[in-house]
Design goal:
12 strands, five-stranded antiparallel beta sheet, mainly beta, 2 domains, 40% strand, 3 helices
């Protein structure tokens, strides 16, 4: 494996599982050592979330080499110098699926402005979150309960009450 190769984790590793990184997760090699690689894993269910982990090469499968321009490689190198790898060492655990029924647990101004309040139920519209927020459809919203509203809601602000 070489720098910037795209890989896949081919087996569960206890230390990685504790950090929310599981078999099947993909990433990019950012450093290569004799028996391991430092991998930049992207969360498959939460766009924008990432973590770094040192992984034994035997646990990784090569997917493909990315061919980057020299300008992009320089940008990636610079970006790597500005990221606190120790801070980004785990991924959140996601137990939400598309079409799950949820209940809103909090009142927040951004939700209330849309006519959505604590205790209301909705439906998850996508199989992934974006920066920790899920697209949720709430029906029967408004004074006459005659409209539907789609808003982005943090996972911590709702609970799944019925799995799809």
């Amino acid at each position: 494996m070489e720098l910037w190769d795209e890989i896949e984790l081919i087996e569960d590793v206890d230390d990685l599982s504790k950090k929310g990184i599981f078999k099947g997760y993909g990433g990019t090699v950012v450093k290569v050592y004799e028996h391991s690689c430092l991998v930049w894993f992207s969360h498959p269910k939460n766009v924008g979330e990432f973590a770094f982990a040192n992984v034994n090469k035997e646990c990784l499968a090569f997917k493909f080499s990315k061919i980057f321009s020299s300008e992009i490689i320089e940008e990636m190198k610079e970006m790597m110098t500005n990221i606190d790898i120790e801070k980004h060492n785990s991924l959140s655990i996601v137990n939400v699926e598309e079409y799950d029924k949820i209940e809103l647990l909090v009142d927040k101004p951004e939700y209330n402005e849309e006519g959505v309040f604590k205790g209301m139920t909705g439906c998850v519209l996508q199989p992934y979150a974006i920066n920790g927020k899920w697209a949720i459809l709430f029906d029967n919203v408004g004074e006459n309960a005659d409209k539907s509203v789609e808003i982005l809601v943090f996972q911590k602000d709702f609970k799944v009450i019925d799995k799809f």
